[in-house]
């Protein structure tokens, strides 16, 4: 056992440590975007306009799953194949990613513009402040931002395969920091919301250009339609479609629940619900540093068929995440009301039972969420994804029932326990089956 630990320390700790530090930087950026910006939105825009921004952002985010998970699956497979020194397939994977994202972008942009031309987004999305023309334009720009960000993830596969994932994580988080600065300046200077939606798109293609330049020093490939391998595409399509279930599940969980709250409780409760969720999900963001740090190393270990390293990564990531969630949740229960009041400048009344509900769900969620990285990073996630969507849809139906007949905002949060109870029992058994199959 000591030999295994020594080998793990020498071969893995350095990239994991770098990944962890880069993701910690990301936490700071997320605090700025998700926590610090909120009172400025409320102060300068008011609840009605901020509620419209939340709804439009939620709708645009749904399209983030439209690459059918190909981006993430290809990053995993690239790392696995690079560890096997199959460089030809690595290049073909990148070509597939570029082509598919381009096709999906064109199709969905056209469909969205057609929808906006024939339907009133204000009525259908229940907007409270924005008019149809402005709401349609803002949604379009947010949609463009989503797809540009998909392209931004393509070169990440190259860095992941050579233990340099921390570099692109840092670039991505620096891009988010710049977007935060642009957003804050727009709020302080009274820039129109439509203009701001354009300005926040600009940093993403700049970071893409930087990563492409850096990646050419690591791995060179020639872009050509003739290099598009249809057989390989069909091979990765199954795991890609399976991966789509996770952004679909997240969209149902986050955006779906936001729409339900907006429909049955109104703009003020939407702001209360989302600010409280954001505050509690900061814990999840913090713990995601563990998740994101071990993900690339799981893929490489799987390619090397190193089951000892996979077991060690699995156990430690769950242990650290669960203990961390309990400790931080206890602190938030104690100081949460004060922090929330200061954070929102008292513009939104704190709801203790709502925060408690979010924290209870988060702790139970952490038990399986930290462990399922072993399945995602090795493309053994198809069953998990289907189960996740089924459980999430069930929880949303339960939430609609609760909102309509019980009218309890806290009970709506507890409906998501349906997801976690199902997933806790599944993930560990599936991981053991993956190890036996290596």
Task: Outline the structure in words.
The chain is mostly helical. The protein contains 17 helices and no strands. The chain has helices spanning 2-62, 70-83, 87-118, 121-125, 132-152, 156-160, 165-188, 193-199, 203-215, 230-265, 267-303, 307-344, 352-369, 373-376, 382-406, 409-414, 417-437. Helix 1 (2-62) runs antiparallel to helix 11 and helix 13 packs parallel to helix 17 (417-437). The protein is globular and about 55 Å long. The model is unreliable at 1-12 (pLDDT under 50).
What is the rounded Rg? 22 Å
Structural class: mainly alpha
Oligomer: single chain
Helical content class: over 70%
Shape label: globular
Outline the fold blueprint.
Layout (H helix, E strand, L loop, with lengths): L1 H61 L7 H14 L3 H32 L2 H5 L6 H21 L3 H5 L4 H24 L4 H7 L3 H13 L14 H36 L1 H37 L3 H38 L7 H18 L3 H4 L5 H25 L2 H6 L2 H21 L1
């Amino acid at each position: 056992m000591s030999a295994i630990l020594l080998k793990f320390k020498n071969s893995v700790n350095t990239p994991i440590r770098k990944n962890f530090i880069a993701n910690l930087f990301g936490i700071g950026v997320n605090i700025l975007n998700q926590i610090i910006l909120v009172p400025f939105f409320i102060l300068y825009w008011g609840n009605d306009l901020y509620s419209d921004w939340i709804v439009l952002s939620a709708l645009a985010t749904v399209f983030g799953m439209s690459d059918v998970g190909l981006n993430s699956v290809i990053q995993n497979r690239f790392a696995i194949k690079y560890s096997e020194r199959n460089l030809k397939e690595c290049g073909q994977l990148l070509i597939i990613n570029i082509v598919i994202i381009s096709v999906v972008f064109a199709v969905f942009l056209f469909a969205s513009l057609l929808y906006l031309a024939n339907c009133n987004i204000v009525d259908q999305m229940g907007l409270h402040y924005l008019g149809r023309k402005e709401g349609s334009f803002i949604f379009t720009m947010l949609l463009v931002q989503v797809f540009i960000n998909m392209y931004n993830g393509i070169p990440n596969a190259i860095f992941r395969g050579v233990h340099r994932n921390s570099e692109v994580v840092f670039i991505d988080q620096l891009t988010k920091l710049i977007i935060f600065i642009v957003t804050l300046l727009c709020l302080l200077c009274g820039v129109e919301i439509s203009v701001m939606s354009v300005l926040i798109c600009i940093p993403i293609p700049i970071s893409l250009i930087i990563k492409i330049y850096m990646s050419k020093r690591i791995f060179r490939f020639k872009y050509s339609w003739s290099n598009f391998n249809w057989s390989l595409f069909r091979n990765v399509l199954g795991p890609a479609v399976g991966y789509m279930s996770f952004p679909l599940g997240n969209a149902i969980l986050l955006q779906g629940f936001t729409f339900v709250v907006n429909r049955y409780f109104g703009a003020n409760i939407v702001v209360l619900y989302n600010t409280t969720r954001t505050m509690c999900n900061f814990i999840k963001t913090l713990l995601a540093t563990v998740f994101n740090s071990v993900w690339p190393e799981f893929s490489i270990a799987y390619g090397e068929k190193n089951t000892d390293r996979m077991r060690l990564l699995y156990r430690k990531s769950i242990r650290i995440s669960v203990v961390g969630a309990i400790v931080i949740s206890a602190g938030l229960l104690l100081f949460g009301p004060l922090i929330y009041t200061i954070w929102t400048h008292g513009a939104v009344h704190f709801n203790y039972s709502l925060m408690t509900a979010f924290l209870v769900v988060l702790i139970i969620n952490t038990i399986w969420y930290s462990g399922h990285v072993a399945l995602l990073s090795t493309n053994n996630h198809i069953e998990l994804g289907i189960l996740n969507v089924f459980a999430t849809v069930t929880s949303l139906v339960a939430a609609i029932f609760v909102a309509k007949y019980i009218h309890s905002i806290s009970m709506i949060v507890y409906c998501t326990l349906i997801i976690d109870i199902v997933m806790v029992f599944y993930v560990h058994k599936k991981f053991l089956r993956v190890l036996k199959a290596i």
